[in-house]
Amino acid sequence: MIISSMFGRICNIRCLCGKSFSTSTFDHLSCVSRFEKYNSRSINSNNKITFSKNYLGCPLRKQHFDATEADYLNVPSAYDRYVFPEPPELISEEEHNIIAETVADCITNVSRGRLFAVVYVAGKQYKVTDYDLIRTDGFMSANVGDKIRLEKVLLVGGEDFTLVGRPLLKRSLVKIEATVIEKTPGVDKVIQYFRRKKSFEKKYIYTPSHTVLRINCVEVYSNL
Amino acid sequence: MSGLFGSRGFTNKTRPSAFLRSILQNGVGRPVKQLKRITLKFCETSQHSLYARKFVEEHLIDFASRHPSVVIYALPETEAFPQVCAEYLNGREEICELNKRDCDDILKILETFADRSGVEIVRIRKDFHTDIPSLQGEWHPFLNFRSYNIVNKLDWTPKLTNAWDPVGKPWEKCYRKHELHKLENRPVLTYEEKAEKPLG
């Protein structure tokens, strides 16, 4: 049973073991520990609750007669059963410098080979290397035969290294060039509704449009 | 009902499909326009080829100047329905009838023919094509086998707690320790202090 002593009011308490006594006497030791948790403030400050700055930043309006501030702060929920994974620890500066040097060496090395990248085009992401094809959903304003530079690059890598952007990489670091090969319509999609005996039917044909890009080169410049 | 469509219906499985491709690795070197020839067939006198005649008089020359690599034939025949035939380097032909179309529609049709390659319009299974799918090696489930320690398992046993016991702050586990300090000691402004600051 919880004590609620507002403005110095004395009330009768009934302990869980069955005994009853007034607020002035706390002789029953097994109950005192539980009461202290509820009313640590009230015991110290002459049976008065002080509304200090709590989590919400404003005084609480008590919805239950016997409730205290502590109960509002520590409401359990289903999320408490979930064990959150530990976040990764930071590496030291020495390790960081070593890794940065090795990556810079990999980039400046001419015989590093082919590079791949993750590119954000027309609402979708593609993993891209040299001389491969991409088909986007929708027309681009470029004409057929134009050369384009794809700017939203999320990730670049080779055989020995990868550079991950948060979320994008800088333009001075990466360069991806592509040519527009063709702009086609796609397969018609028939959208048809029918309900029997209700004279309800609709028909709508949707034709998507696509552009096909050929990626010419994926390049990395050393500016680390 | 017999046949593939009768038994299964008009689905993606019964209708033909293909993978993304280009004609002879088109974009690797100089890009080559795939449209070879356009033949416009129409009648000189009848009403159904009125807009076709209008298009030939007004818009055809501009179209030809924009696409200099395309050969255009305009063939007037008596009592011929208006028709456009586009031929590609593939060897494929695409025919479109212009019986009830305006000049603007005819222009759009010709421009789509010019932008396309001769590949048939069919459901394409993948939006990409690569000859080299992996550089760092393909993933297989035994790649990082040694780094996975079975001993460091998460504790899935349910822990019984009382509703009145104080529970720790669960967001502490999501932050690094130097970031927690920043989070807890961030500046809390009053209404008046916020009003003095600029908007945005």
Automatic annotation (TrEMBL), chain B:
Keyword Nucleus listed: no
Keyword Nucleotidyltransferase in record: no
Regions annotated as coiled coil: none
Record-annotated Ribosomal protein/NADH dehydrogenase domain positions: 44-117
A family per Pfam: L51_S25_CI-B8
Superkingdom to which the source organism belongs: Eukaryota
Subcellular location: Mitochondrion
InterPro entries assigned: Ribosomal_mL43, Ribosomal_mL43/mS25/NADH_DH, Thioredoxin-like_sf
Major localisation: mitochondrion
Keywords: Mitochondrion, Ribonucleoprotein, Ribosomal protein
Family: Belongs to the mitochondrion-specific ribosomal protein mL43 family.
Protein name: Large ribosomal subunit protein mL43
Species per Swiss-Prot/TrEMBL record: Clavelina lepadiformis (Light-bulb sea squirt)
